[in-house]
């Protein structure tokens, strides 16, 4: 049982809860996830199974969400899970006005994470500090927001707007909701969140815990293979002798097999490595030496 599970996380479950449940269902010790989702959020939670936990660091960093922002409300957690700090009527807002402000949240932006988040300051989680009543200054961080698209708008005293957001790692959608509300001078919170894409996995292809259980009972479940999950990375195929030596930790000297990757200068660009029989061997990096190009093991999977 080595590979990945594209799990559709249910509302009310922590990411850790999901990992524990999958561990019990599969009777597997080594299980990890590829990016925390807040308990109230739903959607794609990539789960690595067995030795595939070592591959999480090489997966795509793209993320996409469907978010509902409610305006006219402020809470301690920047979503509806927290205590309401203030409310005010936002009936005067229009979709055109809100659209005009959304552009400032696209691109490379500075963002202050929510006080109730898992970020550590001086060795302590922010949510632990917040629950203890401690007030700390949360530093800004640089994040990438590729696009924000308006899906729907519902006016009223506390209007709601549905957004499709594509972003990079570390982006807090709750912070976007809060900051949009601040820019409108009405306050804003995240009312609902579904992650529609993460680490190359799409919501349309995900399994709920119930579906996973059913597949396991019928012996139908098959993990997503590393070759699919790591399909964004270039690959190289080794002969049986090269594969044997590479799996023993030896560097493979440049030859015709490596010619197609010799232009990859960087040792920071990982490569998938395959045996010529199609089996996945692990992750390598290309390095330069006085004798030419070398393929160095970075993570041996077998």
Q: What does this molecule look like?
A:
The protein is of the alpha+beta class and 302 residues long. It is 20% helix and 36% strand. Strands 1, 2, 3, 4, 7, 10, 11, 12 and 13 form a nine-stranded mixed beta sheet that branches. The chain has a five-stranded mixed beta sheet with strand order 14-16-17-18-15.
SSE blueprint:
Elements: E1 3-9, H1 15-26, E2 31-33, E3 42-49, E4 63-71, E5 73-75, E6 84-87, H2 95-102, E7 107-111, E8 120-121, E9 124-125, H3 126-131, E10 141-154, E11 160-167, H4 173-184, E12 188-198, E13 201-202, H5 209-217, H6 226-229, E14 235-238, H7 240-247, E15 252-253, E16 270-275, E17 280-289, E18 292-300
Parallel strand pairs: 3-12, 14-16
Antiparallel strand pairs: 1-3, 2-3, 4-11, 4-12, 5-6, 7-10, 8-9, 10-11, 12-13, 15-18, 16-17, 17-18
Order of helices and strands: EHEEEEEHEEEHEEHEEHHEHEEEE
Which structural class should the secondary elements be placed in?
alpha+beta
Mean pLDDT, as a whole number?
89
Uncertain spans? none
**In angstroms, what is the radius of gyration?**
23 Å
**Count of separate DSSP helical elements:** 7
The largest pleated sheet is described as: 9 strands, mixed
Secondary structure: number of strands? 18
The termini sit apart by 13 Å
Give helix % range: 10-25%
Shape: elongated
Fraction of residues in β-strands: 35-45%
Structure at a glance:
With 302 residues, the protein is an alpha+beta fold. The protein is built from seven helices and 18 strands.
Key attributes of the depicted protein:
302 residues; alpha+beta; nine-stranded mixed β-sheet; five-stranded mixed β-sheet; 18 strands; 20% helix
